[in-house]
What does this fold into?
Amino acid sequence: MKRRAEHLVQKRDGRREFLRATKLARSIHLALHSVGVDEDWRALELANVVLQALRQKRGGAAADAVAAGSVSAGSVDVVLTTNDISDAVQHLLVVTGQPTAAVAYGAVAAERTRRRQSLATIGRFADGAGGAALGGGGTSSASPGAGLGADDPMLAMRERRLARE
It folds into this structure.
């Protein structure tokens, strides 16, 4: 994939990086696989459709901004956000008849958000005066995902993938 400005993604922490279509296809494949659809080609096709739809949406928004005179043609910002991509994937999964896969895709995003918030909270306690609260038995569970279907192989695979990211 050629690196162009339309392929920039604004991450939740503010970083910008180039979009990796294979990463998007992998996340769609995991959502489909969790509901029993094990077809790699379908995930690749859905990823391409999502990217084309987002390009068209951004292109239309940019053209509207230029036509309204609020920005010049050279200064149009075409950076995607992770929320835009997630919403587009979930919408496409529902439209194509895979609403359970859309729920699974959203559940992974919600789990990542929950983990980010937990890590941020732990980081605040470790940095500040709350550090003693963690050492004195403040964490009673063995892991954040304890009791959430630990015997599920897909959940275990996602846990390992999230730990690497």
Notes: The longest helix spans residues 40-68. The first strand starts at residue 8 and ends at 10. Residues 31 and 101 are 5 Å apart (CA to CA). DSSP finds six helices and three strands in the chain.
